[in-house]
Design goal:
Mean pLDDT: 86
Structural class: mainly alpha
Distance between the termini: 32 Å
Strand content: under 5%
Low-confidence stretches: none
Number of domains: 1
């Protein structure tokens, strides 16, 4: 049998991935989304880095939530987040200097990413460490998926490749604009339209099903 705690944990995770997706639903963290999503590798690296900071900071803030005075909680949250961002910064620099240079200042700017501070204030400071980390993992996964959606389209159309490997052949004429900031806005707008259309379609199907049951 599935326990109630397991159901809560699963729902907590899926809420961050889908129902409250930080990019496609709540429209948070737009700066890194538009800036580093010009390739799949950059998008994946930023997504994984942000997820790591989300999970670690969420768990630690939840553990310390009863010890941190309310008057200085935001300053304490930022200090905790900055600690894990510094760790990620050094890790990426050690793993790949080229990737580190490609992501630029946006790794350090994870500190002020409103997704992370928002999770700390709205969730981690009010829930158990397990639920806080599961929620953070869901939000991080949702953020990473959104980045990959943008990164895949922009790299494919802007360079004819995926993960640096040619896909569309030599005859394809790259849409260079897709690798530039305006391309990020175009692709994000397209994904938002698709996401909202799918959401409205799901809502309409639920209404139709409920109406059928009531009619029957």
């Amino acid at each position: 049998m599935t326990s109630n705690d397991d159901l809560i944990t699963t729902d907590t995770f899926l809420t961050g991935v889908w129902r409250e997706n930080p990019v496609f639903v709540t429209l948070l963290g737009m700066c890194p989304v538009l800036a580093v999503s010009n390739s799949v590798l950059n998008a994946l690296a930023m997504g994984v880095a942000t997820t790591f900071v989300l999970i670690c900071s969420g768990g630690l803030i939840s553990l310390l939530r009863n010890l941190i005075p309310r008057a200085v909680r935001i300053a304490c949250f930022i200090t905790i987040i900055a600690t894990f961002v510094t760790l990620v910064d050094y890790l990426i620099q050690a793993i790949s200097l080229a990737l580190y240079n490609a992501l630029g200042a946006f790794i350090q700017l994870i500190v002020v990413n409103c997704i992370i501070l928002g999770r700390a204030e709205a969730y981690a400071s009010r829930h158990t460490p397990l639920n806080s980390m599961v929620n953070a993992a869901g939000v991080g996964m949702g953020f990473t998926l959104a980045l990959l959606c943008l990164g895949a389209v922009r790299e494919l159309l802007g360079n004819g490749s995926l993960l640096g490997m040619p896909v569309l052949g030599t005859a394809f004429q790259p849409w260079v604009i897709m690798l530039l900031p305006p391309g990020g806005f175009f692709v994000l707008g397209g994904w938002l339209l698709l996401f909202n259309w799918r959401k409205k379609l799901s809502g309409r199907n639920i209404v139709l099903v409920e109406g059928h049951h009531h009619g029957g």
